[in-house]
Amino acid sequence: LGGSISRALQQMSNATIIDEKVLNECLNEITRALLQSDVQFKLVRDMTTNIKKIVNLDDLAAGHNKRRIIQQAVFNELCKILDPGKPAYAPKKGKPSIVMFVGLQGSGKTTTCTKYAYYHQKKGWKPALVCADTFRAGAFDQLKQNATKAKIPFYGSYMESDPVKIAVEGVERFKKESCDLIIVDTSGRHKQEAALFEEMRQVAEATKPDLVIFVMDSSIGQAAFDQAQAFKQSVAVGAVIITKMDGHAKGGGALSAVAATKSPVIFIGTGEHMDEFEIFDVKPFVSRLLGMGDWSGFMDKIHEVVPMDQQPELLQKLSEGNFTLRIMYEQFQHIMKMGPISQVFSMLPGFGAELMPQGQEKESQAKIKRYMTMMDSMTNDELDSSNPKLMTDSRIMRIARGAGRQVREVMDMLEEYKRLAKIWSKMKGLKIPKKGEMSAL
Ligand code: GDP
Ligand code: MG
């Protein structure tokens, strides 16, 4: 996809006269590429119509950077589609919230329920899982296994066949046990059928969820819009989670799901494991969709953010693909110096919402300071290695002692490092543009 869009924009910038015909050809090319990426036809059509309205042919002709203008317009329009205008219901720690998961069989509900619970548990919540899937044989066993692995309390039954009854019993029980995140996993069918939607309606009516999350497999292609809409018509879907983003899926279905449910994507699933789960971030997602990598905004900003004299070295290191703890430390240093912190953060891939959720700038800053204190207790070998095996238990213990911190906190910091290293490994082989070439992206 990235290739054909770049090609379209390239042709455009080569044309000496930009007239309506050239712009149309360019947009047709982009349309084709987005359709191949499973973005719904109607969304693409509306988007190109908007772009034609926004992009001023006179501006293009006057020698402004044409590719940049069109690319920016496409980028902005796609971001707009992914923003339904209001955030999803946000459960509050310490207050009981009921979250119901819906979606077709195989979409990844049960897996995602556990990931969602585990994610919150790590942040100090008290989650619990309720298996209201009585349709699929083995559903309860699967949930039980997942929950046990993550040490999360669960409720379900092998005998009871009424999902509504189980859902209500489970919710009641965990309310009594003062769990603050009661997650109800439901059944799916292979096809969208009346019985399934009726069951969802009944479970929702009986448990009164604060949030209904629609789980969608990213590989379902153009079917995404209709599927999401069908669920939205039965229950009050308030958020979307897209699964299997680690596979070949192109992700365009996410746009359809948001458009159909008028609800934001809150997380994506990136693997079968419990921790392969990421907060959804619109801009990097759209960059990826357009094949611009997560790097478009980043490369534009890096000259502003990183002091000039340090840039060549940093860029060189990043292009070698070795994201060491020392690089993380240096980035933390810049970030602490630069401020306003939130703005800088969102520019560095991986340093955005995940590390520093909106509205929690103070806490995040304290966390980063804490991480840096622990890293001050590391040896040069440790800071310069990108081999995670180096961090043995005894080293971790030494670092914790040296910094006057808990072992758990050092492990948290190393988890953060692993997460960032995974993202930044994509920088490997990156061609480093010189200053001035930057805006000609
Ligand atoms: P359910 O029927 O909706 O409850 O779906 P399950 O949770 O049972 O998941 C169906 C299959 O998809 C299982 O084999 C999961 O391991 C797999 N799965 C779920 N989420 C992901 C993901 O993000 N990535 C990958 N690769 N597989 C996933
Ligand atoms: Mg299931």
From TrEMBL:
This is Signal recognition particle 54 kDa protein. Residues 264-277 form the SRP54-type proteins GTP-binding domain. PANTHER family: SIGNAL RECOGNITION PARTICLE 54K PROTEIN SRP54, SIGNAL RECOGNITION PARTICLE SUBUNIT SRP54. Belongs to the GTP-binding SRP family. SRP54 subfamily. Keywords: Cytoplasm, Endoplasmic reticulum, GTP-binding, Hydrolase, Nucleotide-binding, Ribonucleoprotein, RNA-binding, Signal recognition particle. Gene3D superfamilies: P-loop containing nucleotide triphosphate hydrolases, Signal recognition particle SRP54, nucleotide-binding domain, Signal recognition particle, SRP54 subunit, M-domain. It catalyses: GTP + H2O = GDP + phosphate + H(+). Component of the signal recognition particle (SRP) complex, a ribonucleoprotein complex that mediates the cotranslational targeting of secretory and membrane proteins to the endoplasmic reticulum (ER). As part of the SRP complex, associates with the SRP receptor (SR) component SRPRA to target secretory proteins to the endoplasmic reticulum membrane. Binds to the signal sequence of presecretory proteins when they emerge from the ribosomes. Displays basal GTPase activity, and stimulates reciprocal GTPase activation of the SR subunit SRPRA. Component of a signal recognition particle (SRP) complex that consists of a 7SL RNA molecule of 300 nucleotides and six protein subunits: SRP72, SRP68, SRP54, SRP19, SRP14 and SRP9. The keyword Methyltransferase does not apply. It is found in: Cytoplasm; Endoplasmic reticulum. The gene is LOC110784271. The NG domain, also named G domain, is a special guanosine triphosphatase (GTPase) domain, which binds GTP and forms a guanosine 5'-triphosphate (GTP)-dependent complex with a homologous NG domain in the SRP receptor subunit SRPRA. The two NG domains undergo cooperative rearrangements upon their assembly, which culminate in the reciprocal activation of the GTPase activity of one another. SRP receptor compaction upon binding with cargo-loaded SRP and GTPase rearrangement drive SRP-mediated cotranslational protein translocation into the ER. SMART domains: AAA, SRP54, SRP54_N. Its main location: cytoplasm.
